[in-house]
Amino acid sequence: MTITVVDMRISNLASVLQSLRQVNAPPYQFATKDNLERATAIVLPGVGAFGDGMSSLSHLGLVEPLRKAAKAGIPILGICLGMQLLADSSEEFGLHEGLGLIPGQVKRLDSRGTEFRVPNIGWCDVVSRRPSVLLPAVGDRCFYHIHSYYMAPADSSVITGTIEFAGAPHAVAVEKDNMLGVQFHPEKSQDDGLQVLANFLAAIPLLRKS
Known about the structure:
The chain is α/β, with parallel strands linked by helices and 210 residues long. The chain has one domain: Rossmann fold. It is built from five helices and 13 strands. The strands form two sheets. A nine-stranded mixed sheet has the order 2-1-3-4-13-12-11-8-9. It has a four-stranded mixed sheet with strand order 6-5-7-10, with helices on one face. The chain is globular and about 50 Å long.
């Protein structure tokens, strides 16, 4: 088994790769437009603006191969910006088309005049909404976040984890068939974050059958 990692050139890739090694992940390769359809599983990390992320994927020729891989049932884990790119579109600095793998839109966090600040930076309690692949046990765990935007899925049933921000729940973990995403940074979230990555790796055989 080989993990295929997408390098958008705007990712904190070293931290992600180090965390994968810590959970005894199988060998990894970097994504190309020719190897994605043969991937065992795909990890899509990223930081920065949505438009820059899609532009990078387009420049690397990875947009359609990622869509084909998702359709073929290959497990995909999006991290931070990588999760947002799974959506249909984003309103960040204009309207941008996403990969369209999980229906929904990426919207700006609204502090609503409260003490909450945008960007949301720091440790947040994540409420598990239902047993899921990445968060199998219902309960709260703390993960590290850095974001000004969040995914608002069209179907709320895909939401598996939320944080409370400005008095309202916001999705920070989603799962739809073989597509999974987390807004927080598991590679920066110590033991709980490493467990999320380990859970993804352990579930790959099952996800590939779904």
